[in-house]
Amino acid sequence: MNRIVSVIVNNKPGVLNRVTAMFMRRGFNIQSITVGATEAEGQSRMTIVVADMDEPDIEQMMKQLHKQIDVLKVTEVTEQPMVARELALIRVHSPVPTRGVLSTLIDPFRATIIDVGVETVTIQSVGKPEKVDALIALLRPYGIKELARTGVTALSRDSDTVGEVARLQANTLSL
Amino acid sequence: MSALVQPTSNQTAGVPDPWITGAEMLVEALRSEGVEVIFGYPGGAVLPLYDALYECGIPHVLTRHEQGAIHAAEGYARVSGKTGVVIATSGPGATNLVTGLADAMLDSLPIVAITGQVPTSVIGSDAFQETSIISISTPITKHNYQVRTAQELPGILKEAFHIASTGRPGPVLIDIPKDVANASGIFDYQEPVQVPGYQPTIKPNQMQLRKVVSAIRAAKKPVILAGAGVLHAKAHESLRQFAEQTQIPVVHTLLGLGGFPADHSLYLGMGGMHGSLVANMALYETDLLINIGARFDDRLTGNLQYFAKNAVVVHIDIDPAEIGKNVRTHIPVVGDAGESLKSMLDMELTPVQADEWMAYLLQLRDEYPFWYQQDGTLKPQRVMEIVHQQTQGEAVVVTDVGQHQMWAAQFYPFNGPHRWVTSGGLGTMGFGLPAAIGAQLGAPDRTVVAIVGDAGFQMTLQELSVLAESQLPVKVIIFNNHSLGMVRQWQELFYEGRYSETLLSNQPDFVKLADAYHIPGFRVEGEEDFARALQAGLATDGPVLIECRINPEENVFPMVAPGKGIHEMVGVKP
Predict the structure, then answer these.
(1) What angle do the packed helices A129-139 and A99-106 form, to 10 degrees?
(2) Looking at the domain B19-186, which fold is it?
(3) Cβ–Cβ below 8 Å for A56 and B195
(4) Which residues of B touch A63 (CB under 8 A)?
(5) DSSP letter at B204?
(6) CATH fourth-level superfamily of B206-367
(7) Please, what is the average pLDDT of chain B?
(8) Can you give the pLDDT at residue B15?
(9) Can you tell me the distance from the alpha carbon of B15 to that of B32, in angstroms, rounded to the nearest whole number?
(10) N or C: more exposed end of chain A, with fewer CB within 10 A?
(11) Which residues of B are the active-site residues?
């Protein structure tokens, strides 16, 4: 199982480089990383997904993150009640006759067609990474022309933060 | 550029101008920090800084290479406990600091490095002498800054000195573009430093320390491993009291030497690859290992599988990231070494019931001291003994890296702190001579002896100029074995004597070289010659260079071979 670490950092030039440089130096491999604004002025949230690792290793990774002067807070959210979401844009080969089928297919995923061309349609999907994986697998037989995923962003679950999740998703930048 | 625009004229009679340039701010900040000496080398991008330094009253040492400047700053920081300051220009000046930054990072030395940068308008355009020293130095500094406006300079300087010197010390680099140095702003150095992301834990958790104290009560084979954290915390006195009250023997790391008196009955010597047998056996067999301010470097632990394998491990460290990094820790304590020791001294400490253990260790200590065999040649170990004798063990000993470094660590016992300057973590050849310059400036009243090998010495020998120019009374002792001794030793032991590129057949005449720099030089080949030369050298006010011709085949023993456990030492006896 992947591990998800939520990191609050100063929103300053070079901070992303400091964090990724530390991962490189210490030999930790990043699966995905998203960075975006938080509710606090001057702070960003990084959501870093890494492949599963031993407890001492994840502890060391978090300590090294915390050691960075521009890192304010480090939380591993994998095991916590949390919401994790990802956005994917998928351009699928879709001559006009197949479009009805596609529409039906993506409907249960609450994905939407956001762009239509002569030969392709672009589908937007938001959800848990597994859901996005499943949709991509279903669309693959039709011919995926282009694919862009944002990587996961996450927050600990709290009834008060439901509104914030939607806002954060909207602000998430792809790197 | 600064958001503040300098008014055309804001000077009224008698009112000091609050607007000063970035360069002048640097000088003011260095004054406020009480900086006694700057090590550096000028260049195009730091011309404004050097203009502000001109006649500013803070002594500047012009080394002959930026690497020399930063090693000198390290030597200064190591013996004085103060932050070393180094200035270099952009591009090559900055990249020449890289080795020293990495060295200071691994050995936790407080350094503030100032680099010039091309003007902000051309950053990113591959301008003349432009390099991204921020990107380069990020993994080898505790923190770094590129200053974008003059107005933020005072805050950054204050923060940099704070970060470099507190918590686990380390190097901080400040990159100052030339136009920022020329721009003006208001200098305010009163604002307290506030770094939300940097709050080192100084006071240890008392509950954890109580666990340590009860572990001590249960221990049958306890040992203290004391590292340089004890020295940074100036906790040598507390360490001695703690060891005496608990009667737990002490092993030092290479960098920790001097934190506990070498002539103390509880001292077992240095552990690690070329440590003493008794120190390593203690680390191997212990049931309670109390690590105070050491980071379990691989040169100390040997193969981790065998290191303290039956022990309850206590690790006291100011840097939480060191705890559990290499060795599984049962009782972690995050905090300052001195605060931790003092807190425990306030608790009920009783002597451990470990008579059998102590008897065993003392027997090993007596039976397996560091040794060498007299064979008629000048023995480097004997040289160190003579240095110890003639300086009454009171010298500041600075080394380069290699065999001579190990012989110095083995045969020059230290009874007090801040007398030992060596490159431990990075193992930087070329460190010795410039570090000795800094050490002498940090401890002007002490005898400073630089022990260097012939190969490492040649990496930074241009700094002899500084010795001569400033008449610093450093006694430089070169162990000349016409080879890269330690690498040669490994080739002998592990590569069937295939001496690939380690034998230096064409050496300069080191005495003539000293002469060329106007430094008295001696060449010695025998023990008595050396004793006489050193005596003469110590009686000389200025610098002296003594070249000791030693046997190229002399090896450092005992030794834990790479990949072996620390209990598997070879060469423990003649």
Answers:
(1) 160
(2) Rossmann fold (3.40.50)
(3) no
(4) 320-321
(5) P
(6) TPP-binding domain (3.40.50.1220)
(7) 96
(8) 55
(9) 21
(10) N
(11) 66, 128-129, 178, 486
